[in-house]
Amino acid sequence: MSSCQGELAEKSFYVTAVDQEGNLLVNGTVSTLRNGFFELWLPRKHIIDLRIQGFNRVAQGKITTYDASKTCVTTFRLETF
Question: 19 vs 39, 42, 45, CA distance in Å?
């Protein structure tokens, strides 16, 4: 048995997610769970620009929601803006 633990448990972040057609999918505060991760439910078969802000830092990049896409993304890093 194994488990993962994120560094920022039970913290709030401002998250926006916009699909390739410019539709705003997420626009609001999201809190991490006790394990330091948060969940987003996004529509299938999209390319999404994701932006996460908190602690005067930002992480941004693209994710996809196709059948072969990863369902757990851990590569976003908060950088000073």
Answer: 17, 10, 10
| Domains of the chain by start residue, with CATH | 13-80 (2.60.40.3700)
Q: How far apart are CA 17 and CA 21, in angstroms?
A: 12
Question: Distance of alpha carbon 30 from its chain centroid, rounded?
Answer: 9
Query: What type of residue sits at position 19?
Result: D
Please say whether the beta carbons of 58 and 52 come within 8 A.
yes
Give residue-wise pLDDT tens across range 49-80.
999 999 999 999 999 999 999 999 999 999 99
Read off the pLDDT of residues 28-57 as tens digits, 9 standing for 90 and up.
999 999 999 999 999 999 999 999 999 999
